Amino acid sequence: MALNDLKAPIAICTWGFVAANAKAGEELSKGIKALDAAIAGVSVEEDNIKNTTVGKGGAPDREGNVTLDACVMDSNGDCGSVVCVENITNVAALAKRVMTETPHVMLAGSGAEEFAYSQGFESDNLLTDSSKKAWEEWLKSPEYKPLINIENHDTIGMLCIDKDGDIAGACTTSGLSYKMKGRVGDSPIIGSGLFIDNDIGGAVGTGMGEEIMKTVGSFLIVELMRNGMSPQQACEEAVQRITRKNDHFNDFQIAYIAINKSGDVGSYCIHKGFTYMKYQNGKNENIHSDHYVKS
Length: 295
Ligand code: ASP
What we know:
Layout: H1 3-6, E1 10-14, H2 18-29, H3 34-47, E2 68-73, E3 79-85, H4 91-101, E4 106-108, H5 109-118, H6 129-140, E5 156-161, E6 167-173, E7 194-197, E8 201-207, H7 209-214, H8 217-226, H9 231-245, E9 254-260, E10 265-269, E11 275-280, E12 283-288, E13 290-291
Parallel strand pairs: 3-4, 10-13
Antiparallel strand pairs: 1-5, 1-11, 2-3, 2-6, 5-6, 7-8, 8-9, 9-10, 11-12
Residues 154-155, 173, 175-176, 185-187, 206-207, 209 line the site of aspartic acid.
């Protein structure tokens, strides 16, 4: 396919993160490469203190610590990840530094935080007054029950195709609210929360990370596309790998978005209510995903 037919650039992201996706689209339109555009896009939500599921302002674990997870994957197959990081807001950018400035793929906890300072990142208090209040309220009758479609936003996972037709992505989250100390979900795990193969396409997930990890969801979607499925078919099959094996799917949400090398996009989730953003040809749309549970 000629690059002109692709109508690149394209940016897609989980949930209705209008400003974040617009930022990525603008960066791509200026000729910025896919990975840097995705990082610029997701950083809008990392900086947004009203978003209680990503970056600064994210909900803490049950002990009151905000710990962030993020990963990035580039079109050449390189990737970087940080898990359980405190006091650093822009963890997707930090994951890129792990990719470019270290011999490793993943750094955790205090090691990731110290590395961030060595790279010029600044320390910040990620627990906002309102997140602290909500956590104190939760402590009054502490029950761990992740909500389906938290305030209609969650983890932000973003996939970009740049003007050269190259694909990259980023995924960043504060994880599930009131998780156990040290808990890490799918979002920073390459292949679970995010996977890119520049010859085929990319996928990202959001929702109950434990279930995404058990099925290596994003890698699965890219492999299904490699074997001929459209992004839509691949997202549906990846969701159904979970619903077929887990009788409790009524209790949690899983949602995927995917894009292939031709710029076709797909999305599927278990429960109604998941939306995603798509930027193409200067238009930034919020699209409702089809869902598995119909009633
Ligand atoms: N997938 C994220 C996690 O399990 C949370 C989410 O997307 O809601 O940490």
